[in-house]
Structure formats: C-alpha cells, structure tokens
Design a protein that fits this description.
The structure holds 2 protein chains of 2 kinds. Chain A is mainly alpha-helical. Chain A contains 1 helix and no strands. Chain B contains 1 helix and 11 strands, in the order αβββββββββββ. In chain B, the strands form 2 sheets. In chain B, strands 1, 2, 3, 4, 6 and 9 form a 6-stranded mixed beta sheet that branches. The longest helix of chain B has 27 residues. Chain B is elongated and about 80 Å long. The chains are: A mainly alpha, B alpha+beta. Chains A and B meet through α1 of A and α1 of B.
Amino acid sequence: MGKGTSKQQQASHSDSEVSFKGTFIAVMLVGVFILVSWFGLYALFLSR
Amino acid sequence: MHLHKYEKIWLTFGVGSLALFLAIIGFAAFWKGTHPQSHIEVIDPQNVQAHESFKPENLGLHEVADGKYIFNIVASAFNYDMGVDADGVPVKTIRVPKGSTVLYQITTIDVVHGFNVAGTNVNMMVEPGHISRFETVMKNTGEFTIVCNEYCGIGHHLMYGTVEVYE
C-alpha cells in the first residue's frame, strides 16, 4: 500500500515536470517581449 | 516549499526585471533629473502676465547664454502665443542651432492643452494654474511640428507651430 502511494506521488511528480516546459517557454517569451519593447522605447527616448 | 527549477528561473527573471526597472527609475530621477513637467509651481491663469516669464515682451525664444535658450509660450484656445517678431507679426516658427539646450516654459489661460514637439521628447500637458517646464538638448536637425495633443475644443487642430533645428 505504502509502495503504491509513493509510486503515485512519483507519477504525479514527473507529470508536472513535463507540463512545466511549455509554461516556462511561454513565460520567458512574455518576459523577453516586455524587456525588448521597454529597452526599444528607452533607446528611442535617449536618441531624440 | 518545493519550487520547480523553471519556477525559480522565471521568479529570478521577474524579480530581477523589477529591480532593474527600479534602478533605472532611480537613475533617471536622481541622476538625470527627470521629473514630471508640471510641479507644484502655480500661476493665476487669469493673470499670467504677472509672471516674469509670461510677460508679452518675454514670450517666444530668448538666448540666455551661449547655446542656451528659453522658449516661453502662453497657450489658449486655440493658439500658442510665442510672441511677435520685429514687424509685429505673431511668431509661428522658432530656429535654434543643433545641440542647443532649450528650456520650454508654457502655461495656459483657459483649458487644458498639450504641447508636443513631434519627433522630440518635448511632450507636456499644460494645465490652467500650472507652469509646465521641460529642458532638452535639440540633438537632431530638422523641422519639428509643435502640436496640441490634448483635445481642447473645436479649434484644437489650429494649434501648431514649428521648431527648426539647423546645423
């Protein structure tokens, strides 16, 4: 019984590892977009 | 608390970005002197002539030192009063050499106006009772159109002028 529980935990643990990858990429894309647009506008401000 | 490796990365990224932006704001505010264009300095909108900068003879562009200019403007519906030239004709175009420092000082006698020198960083809201100031170096040559970018009424589009920066 105890063995079964630990197996289930292990299974759900490895599931979340897999599902995080897409989230990670999406979050980083949003972050990079914010930084690039912010610095683009700041460069425009400094050049004028 | 268990934090996933990726979660640690994007939390670091997010907190790092906040810290970076905060540092840049501090740099801009305390080192570069960036601040809101309208501060606590007030003026009676019914009697702007009482202020030294907005006396009729002080309106328009004045060279105060070598390469340093002050440009005084009184906005009203629907005109920018930039003074008159030697023939008494209202000034609509000012000319400054490239690289000069210009302090723009503007106030309004009636409603809220905008003051934007398109293509430069000069972009201010002009509120009755307040003096808006912005000092900048005119780095790029060209003709820049002054426009009112706060809708002020039926003649809003008639408020314009030109800043010419020559080599």
